[in-house]
Amino acid sequence: MADSTKACLVLANGLVFEGKSFGASGCITGEAVFTTGMNGYLETLTDPSYYGQIVTQTFPLIGNYGLIPSDFESSKIHVRGYIVRSWCEEPSNFRCENNIDVWLKEQNIIGLYDIDTRALTKVLREAGVMNGMIISGDSAEAKEKFAALENPSEKQKLLEEIKSYKIEKAVETVTCDAVKIEKDANTVFEESAKYKAVPVRADGTKENDIEKAMKDGKGKKVVLWDFGAKANIRRELLKRGLEVVTVPATASYEEILAEEPDGIMLSNGPGDPSDNVGIIEEIKKLLNDRIPIFGICLGHQLLALAKGAKTSKLKYGHRGANQPVKHLSSGRVYISSQNHGYAVENDSIPDGAILSFVNTNDGTCEGITYTDTPAFSVQFHPEACSGPLDTSFLFDEFVKLINNHNYLKSFKANTERIDAISYFASTIKHTKDANNEHLA
Predict the structure, then answer these.
(1) In the predicted model, what is the mean pLDDT of residues 268-285?
(2) What percent of the chain has pLDDT over 90?
(3) Residue 386: what pLDDT?
């Protein structure tokens, strides 16, 4: 049965949400964010990009299909804390191995439930992402924190403590965690085929034949530069026949070249992209060698920074499996899965690069194609699982780029870039103004 121990979330602005405890107990401070996915809680909890964050699920019931280790994106939970409206004590699924309360306890992750998650989400949307603290249980530390909430002067000290929290050494902390659950290509394809998660082509059809799916990638090696990679990035590369060698975030230009890669995959990951000064310098070196590069999420941001663009923090970020993005060259809108709090500034995109995808909600950059080097990147997650598979064809585009370094030159670049930036100018200005107001 659920533990009804007293628990609460204290936000940096002084608001307190009282609820009940599940998972581990204690006190934890993190960056409070929300995600709108209706499913995929296992992938959310094990996504290294959530390192340092207290994650709130907006969907009211979480845990109904229980604990399924084969769906993990890494070997452990990476969130700082977890908040839900209610959690399912008796999950039902033929693959279920336990419930999430037991799992959170095993991983020492503090959970909070029975609060109004919609009200909390509205606060974070209006005020912007902010730090928070979950207080749970009856330990001496928890009792001290609860007592502080009853005394104005002590509460102010507690709020200053919460405000001072900063996510640090994020990438180096989570790198290569997903390696612990790696599998070979044939096993990955066989398991994926059971649930129709085979490669999706640009026309929306699925490739169920393993030989056809892997044909173009056979004999090619990709270095997966792991900044906190989700396991499904590697799976999608393997499904297309590519040999994948994972290297840690600390890998140097020389170490990557020593692998003699045909392509380089820049993974997702947590934290402020501009903090990764050393990685950005190594990417600059790699660009001179003209090895095909594909970046996702943090990898997209780091590649842009290496090319001279700028990034900035969004008011409350994009987190969920229902984010619409427009592909500017085709005019088609795709539904994507996303998890990021920073974005590349549209008007900082350098010469030799075009805006390829934009978020249709706020006009922010969702993809860049480079015309002066064989590279492209997207802010969203084309490998999304659980999530829409609409854009997984981008892995096929990467294979094409590996086999033909001039493939991207077929893009009609300049006019698309000008038209896109002009069309979204007012939206972009509104978004930047909102961000500036939040950060001030």
Answers:
(1) 98
(2) 86
(3) 80
Indicate which residue of 78, 318, 340, 381 is catalytic.
381
Under a CB-based contact definition with an 8 Å cutoff, are residues 182 and 174 in contact?
A: no
260: burial class by Cβ within 10 Å (0-12, 13-18, 19+)?
exposed
Query: ∠ CA 300-302-308 to the nearest 5 degrees?
Result: 105
Please write the tens of the pLDDT for every residue from 293-345.
999 999 999 999 999 999 999 999 999 999 999 999 999 999 999 999 999 99
Using alpha carbons, select from 75, 78, 279, 296 the residue that is nearest to residue 173: 78
Has 381 been annotated as catalytic? yes
Nearest Cα neighbor of 435 from 368, 345, 358, 348 is: 345
The set of long-range contacts for 205-210, using a CB threshold of 8 Å and a minimum separation of 24, is 210/186
**Active-site position among 176, 365, 383, 385:** 383
CB atoms within 10 A of CB 38: 15
pTM of the model: 0.92
Pull the structure tokens for residue 3: 């533990």
297 is known as an active-site residue: yes
Q: Is 371 helix (H, G, I), strand (E, B) or coil?
A: coil
Q: What integer pLDDT is reported at residue 405 of this predicted model?
A: 83
**Residue with structure tokens 């077929």?**
410
14-19 contacts at long range (C-beta below 8 A, 24 or more positions apart): 14/155, 14/159, 15/123, 16/149, 17/112, 17/115, 17/116, 17/119, 17/120, 18/115, 19/83, 19/112, 19/113, 19/114, 19/115
Q: Residue 439: is its pLDDT beyond 60?
A: no
Please give the pLDDT value at position 418. 37
Tell me which of 176, 297, 365, 385 is the catalytic residue.
Answer: 297
Cα–Cα distance, 219 to 242 (Å, whole number): 7
Q: Which of 16, 269, 48 is nearest to 132 (CA)?
A: 16
Q: Classify 434 as helix, strand or coil.
A: helix
Burial of 168 (0-12, 13-18, 19+ CB in 10 A): exposed
SS3 56: strand
Question: What's 64-95 look like in SS3?
Answer: CCCCCHHHCCCCCCCCCEEECCEECCCCCCCC
For residue 408, is pLDDT > 80?
no
Quick check: 354 pLDDT over 50? yes
